[in-house]
Amino acid sequence: MRTLLCENIATSPDFRHLSTIANVRVDLRYASANNFMGRDMYSPLDCAWLHAEAAHGIALAVAWLAKQRSDVTLCILDALRPHRVQLAMWDALKYGDLQKYLAPPERGSIHSYGMAVDVTLLNANGEELDMGTGFDEMSETSHPEHESQFLQTGDLIAEQVANRHLLRDAMKASGFHGIATEWWHFDCGDRVRVRSEFARIV
Ligand SMILES: [Zn+2]
Fold first, then answer.
1. pLDDT tens for each residue of the chain, 202 residues long
2. CATH number of the domain that 123 lies in?
3. Residues 6 or more apart from 99 whose CB is under 8 A from it?
4. Which of these, 116, 124, 99, lies nearest to 184 by C-alpha position?
5. Gap from CA of 116 to ligand 1 centroid (Å)
6. What is the span of the domain harbouring residue 97?
7. In total, how many domains does the chain have?
8. Which of these is catalytic: 53, 106, 137, 182?
């Protein structure tokens, strides 16, 4: 497997800094204490990077939203996650049942290739749209696969599910695929191809 040190990412033409994507908000939660770990997992690393293919996809999603729903803005909550940070998270979740929300070390995360993003939508005031659960809330209510069931039980309301649909529509129209367990997570393109052909950032 090809690897690239996060410290050297700026030397690679395959990656783009998030600051080069117009009209997207960036609020990297693992670069702050505002995450399930309660501490900054990234400092001193700059993790505001994506593979150029995923960065292009984000630009497409921004353009899609500008056309369909100009009152909302895409906000990136996590992008590149170096493999060393993925390992630290895995270790931190060792003693619970939450490890199922992380890709195991031997498999690794698509985030570590700069080809996955965690995203949400902001309203015109810059506030997050109500998705029913918060980012990284590791509960069944966060699982897109259970949305229709939770609508029936009242654990989710129609507006929350509609907001998730809007996010998914924007991302799907731009080359991303969602997953069954996290409304905020999207992989760019084919994960099998990413794992076999792309460099992992370590
Ligand atoms: Zn993710």
1. 899 999 999 999 999 999 999 999 999 999 999 998 889 999 999 999 999 999 999 999 999 999 999 999 999 999 999 999 999 999 988 887 788 888 888 889 999 999 999 999 999 999 999 999 999 998 999 999 999 999 999 999 999 999 999 999 999 999 999 999 999 999 999 999 999 999 999 9
2. 3.30.1380.10
3. 90, 93
4. 116
5. 6
6. 3-201
7. 1
8. 182
